[in-house]
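Follow-up to my earlier ticket, as requested here are the two runs.
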Amino acid sequence: MYWCIGFALLLVLMPTVAVPVWENVTTSQFSEDDLSNLTEAVTKEMTQQKTQQKASISAADVESRAQVNVQRKDPDKKWVFGTAVIEAPKEKGAYPEGWIYVAKMEEAEWKVALEGSQLFQSWLQDAPSTVVNSNEKKAFANRSSDVKIMADQDQLRLPFALGATWTLTGGPHGYSGQNTPYSSLDLAGGNQQVLAAGSGNAYTMCGNGQGWIRIIHANGFATDYYHLLNNIRPNGSWVDVGTFLGYTGTDVSCGGYASGRHVHFALRYNNAYVSINGREIGGWVFWSGNSAYGGYAMHGSTVRYPGQGLYHYGALAPNQGIVDVVGRGTLNVRSGPGSNYPIVGTKNDGEIVTIACTATGTTFTGRSKTTNIWDRIGNGQWVSDAYVWTGSTTAVAPTCN
């Protein structure tokens, strides 16, 4: 189900936020020849990228659907920083592809490096601070082709207010619908205000500044938000977690399709979309189904399917976990790390616990692991880690002294 809301009401509900200015130097500071040559070079690089991916799109299609957006340049016009998009056909299941890029003038020609390449990492560090600031350089430096995809929590929230309940209108699916990996969720509801899932540098991907925002997070992840209405227009500016980004909408400025108001929320790591299967976001662990848009989310033993509501618990800290008693009621809390110690209390399924340190004790088998790790969650309070979802089969806190 989707919700509709009048434009006048949107103006009333619009939160008071500092909106970064969208700096578009494409026409005001670049000559027609400058822009034409740059566009040609960026488009050529996107074509090569798709060829390397063995994608079924021709060079002519890339050229006809290319958006090359200049966000910053140095006064000598030797460095450019911006976003580049291959627009999608405006049809169901189609989504645009986009990169952040750096371009450098060498021997009177533009050379281009797309987000994700080693050359991009190198040029990003070399670019003058007027083109790429130190904060951005640090954020992008956390992305390398040599980095292993993290198995533990991504420490991200869901893209709406803490304590609110929104509808999962589409379960795990590919960024372009049916394709894999299933990196994306569709969400709608509440006040329709889409918020940043984590702090980071934010970029508007589409040339007109509408619809699509990407945030580069310091922990190596990035998040995409598409179909936004009345969104802010950042140009690499820093946004804090929970910052208002825009309203859910049906915008297709970069192509694609939306039958009703929602945000298409996608997870990226190491400059590519990654599977959301088995990952925790906002206190829910998402699991893919046999087909796109199916699957479900779990918080402890509670299961929610597409069309049902997700309460936003917030991001887990690295040493936190969710009690999951596999539908058996409550979890015994003991005075020491093992079943031979007295019971001193219980924890309800779905409770979020903070793990101070760990020790080894009695082995148990929970939903996701068999382990002899025990977690100390308070002074003289211990629970089996088998019944605490942490996203890891190993300890997430140091050994107790």
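Run two:
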Amino acid sequence: MGLLVPFVVRLWNIHSNRLLDDVALVRLAAEQAFDVPAVLRTQLDAFRNTPPPAGCLLLRGLPVGDLPPTPPEPTVATEKSAATEIRLLTFASLLGEPVGYLPEHRGDVVQNIVPVKASASRQTSTSSKVNLMFHTEAAFHPHRPRYLLLYCLRGDPQARTTIASIHGALPHLPQDVIDVLFQPLFRCSVDSSYLDGRSNVLGPALPVLSGDVANPAMVFDEDLMVGIDEEAEEALHMLGTTLTEHHGGVVLEPGDLLVIDNSVVVHGRSPFTARFDGTDRWLQRAFVVEDLSASEGERTGRVITTVFGE
């Protein structure tokens, strides 16, 4: 596979049946961080401080506990305990500051990613019938997350989470294309879920690649991003093709936690057949930023509230 770092572990047990709001969940998770086994803390510290070229970390064998049926919608209340939410946020807290985005499942800091009938064929995390195209999470957002965490509660053998790192693609791109990708010649429209009925607009011109030429960061969305001229469009197309040719992936199983460095990795998902009968795939997702102060004035507590569209 070449893009994941497997690590098998049986984590400590957390028992909680209390109904907790997001602030309380993050606070409790931060307290739990002191109890994380040293070997895991070391693994996460190394991932944060010296990011591997693959840009991903896979932890396996985490508890999921007794689960109710998979909810039909991400925000439908379930009888599940808060244990997996706290565990997920514990890992998130070791990487930075967990946040929610108001349009994403009402701003929950832990979101349930489940197939939804109404969005089965859309380019969204709750789809199932379509190939979810490669994208930087919230590529259009000025406060997009640095890390994305996916905790599998129920898996589906058809659903392959696909991942591609710029470090895997860069050696296969011509230098003239790389030079174009470093220029602010690209614009990204806004995911429809962030518009709340407002008209979509293209964001400001930005480069796809930035930072160190030999070790760049990347922001890319195969569906939402366009080049501002023909040369930029060709470079964007070549990058997308190269990422597809040099990608990897994993079929997440219950107890898997996939950590993605959103600054260098794009991700997607293969189609799968949803049954909508309570047995479907169920992931929990968390977003992490490095600095809360960057979104000051566009954030309430831990919920980023930036408004897009016209």
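The only thing I checked on run two: The longest strand covers residues 147-154. Let me know what else you need.
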